[in-house]
Design goal:
Distance between the termini: 50 Å
Largest sheet: 8 strands, antiparallel, barrel
Number of strands: 13
Mean pLDDT: 87
Low-confidence stretches: 1-26
Helix content: 10-25%
Organism: Winogradskyella haliclonae
Protein name: Outer membrane protein beta-barrel domain-containing protein
Keywords: Signal
InterPro entries: Beta-barrel_OMP_2
Pfam family, one: OMP_b-brl_2
Number of helices: 1
Strand content: over 45%
Oligomer: single chain
Radius of gyration: 26 Å
Amino acid sequence: MRLYYCLLLFCLPISFSWAQDSLSVAIDDRYREDQFYASITYNLLSNNPNGVSQSDFSTGFHFGFIRDMPINQKRNWSIGIGLGISSNSYNQNLIITETSGNINFSIDDGGLGNITKNKFTTYLIDVPFEFRWRTSSAETYKFWRIYPGFKLSYLVYNSSKLKSDLLTTNVSNIDAFNKLQYGLTLSAGYGTWNFQIYYGLNSIFDDTAQLNNQSIDSRAIKVGIMFYIL
């Protein structure tokens, strides 16, 4: 019996040391950061044709998953590639109507009376790419982050809604929207609250969208708050 207790006392420190090493490896060498995201943005239109302006508050909602792939031993540098969905609305004075299957673009000149709603909305599948730097560790849940990147989006559905005293119209799946949209992104902040910006590098509309024989080269700028989870 004494031999049993002696062996037990001898083995306990070794077992405890081994458990500590195993836990350290599991935590320090394998953790990943910020793999789910959700954001709310205020959407702006830039590079508009003469006469086009925004009205009211335009919003965007973005959700998705980004695979975090650390590229150094400390795991504070990584690359993130993901997949997400988003919806983006733009309230403005661009009138989009359909006549005999043709889409027409014009500017509100007051001829429709009081306009209570005039917006177009895009629904996108997003593929974000981020180059990530952060001050995180396996034991730190609040840390600084700076994530510059690039986002490629594919348009799956769009609609334009107009409601006024004299006209109510709803047009969807408009061919004049660009199917592929892309831009630069930046997320930065500390802990839960992070600033986010997206700057579109190409137009929301394609070359067939014309206003007074001028291409509608409006581009998206999205500014908002990003929440990262796990």
